[in-house]
Design goal:
Helices cover 32% and strands 24% of the residues. The chain is α/β, with parallel strands linked by helices. The protein is built from 6 helices and 9 strands; from the N terminus they run βαβαβαβαβαββαββ. The N and C termini lie far apart (49 Å). Strand 2, helix 2 and strand 3 form a beta-alpha-beta unit. 36% of the residues are buried. The chain has a 7-stranded mixed sheet with strand order 3-2-1-4-5-6-7, with helices on both faces. The structure holds 5-O-phosphono-beta-D-ribofuranosylamine. 5-O-phosphono-beta-D-ribofuranosylamine (GRF) binds next to helix 1, strand 5 and helix 6.
Length: 217
C-alpha cells in the first residue's frame, strides 16, 4: 500500500499528534508521518514523536524577520522530507497566504468548535459565553483566513450547564482524537474532492439519529 506522507506541525501538548501516531501504527492505515515540526523548542509533543522514532525538527519563528521567511523555511523542510499533506495539530502560528497557496488543498487543521462558529484561540470560552447547547470540533482544509476552509469532518458534543472551559475542552478533545485520524483516512483514500469552498466526499453519511440536546422528553 502506498501511504500518504504527512508532516505534523505542533506548538505544544501534542495530544492530536499522539492520536495520529497511534492511527498510523495500524498496518492498514493509509498514511504515515514523515516529520513532526515544532516552532517551539519545549513543545511537549516532540518527546513523544522522538520516542516513537519519528523525525522531528524545531524551527523557531522568532528567529525569522517576518512570517513569510519562516514559512519558506518550513516549506523547505517539509519538501525535503517528501511530505504530501501538512497537518496542523495545535500549531499556534497563522500561515502566510504564500504558504497556504503553495500547499493549496494540502494543509489541514483541527479546531475545537463547530466552524464557522467560534474561530480563534478561545473557542471553548466563546461557546460557553454564547450559551450554545452543542459544540464540537472541525477538521478542515486550511485557507489563508484563520480557521476557515472546506470542512472535512465534524463531531458535536453537548455543552453541559456546569461546564467550564476545561471540562468542555476535555469532552471536545476526545472527539478530536477520533475525527483527525478519520479525516486523514478520507483524504489518503481519495474519498474527498475539494470543490471551491466545499469538500465533497464519497464517505457514508452519519446513520445516527438527529442529536438533540437537551433530550426532548
Ligand atoms: C486542540 O484543541 C486543537 O483543536 C487546537 O489546539 C489544541 C491542540 O491540542 N487547534 P494538542 O496539542 O493536540 O493536545
Amino acid at each position: 500500500m502506498d501511504r500518504l506522507k504527512i508532516g505534523v506541525l505542533i506548538s505544544g501538548r501534542g495530544s492530536n499528534l499522539r492520536a495520529l501516531i497511534d492511527a498510523c501504527a495500524a498496518e492498514d492505515f493509509p498514511a504515515e508521518i514523515n516529520l513532526v515540526l515544532s516552532n517551539k523548542l519545549d513543545a511537549r509533543g516532540l518527546a513523544h514523536a522522538e520516542a516513537t522514532g519519528i523525525d522531528t525538527v524545531v524551527i523557531e519563528h522568532d528567529k525569522f524577520p517576518d512570517r513569510e521567511s519562516f514559512d519558506r523555511a518550513i516549506d523547505a523542510v517539509l519538501k525535503a522530507a517528501n511530505v504530501e499533506l501538512v497537518c496542523l495539530a495545535g500549531f499556534m502560528r497563522l500561515l502566510s497566504t504564500w504558504f497556504v497557496e503553495t500547499w493549496r488543498d494540502r494543509v489541514v487543521n483541527i479546531h475545537p468548535s463547530l466552524l464557522p462558529a467560534f474561530k480563534g484561540i478561545d473557542a471553548h470560552a466563546q461557546a460557553i459565553a454564547a450559551g450554545v447547547r452543542l459544540s464540537g470540533c472541525t477538521v478542515h482544509i486550511v485557507r489563508p483566513e484563520m480557521d476557515a476552509g472546506p470542512v472535512l469532518v465534524q463531531a458535536a458534543v453537548p455543552v453541559m450547564p456546569d461546564d467550564d472551559e476545561d471540562t468542555l475542552a476535555a469532552r471536545i478533545l476526545a472527539a478530536e482524537h477520533r475525527c483527525y485520524p478519520y479525516a486523514i483516512r478520507l483524504l489518503a483514500e481519495g474519498r474527498v474532492k475539494i470543490v471551491g469552498e466545499r469538500a465533497e466526499d464519497q464517505a457514508p453519511g452519519s446513520t445516527a439519529a438527529t442529536l438533540i440536546h437537551p433530550a426532548i422528553e
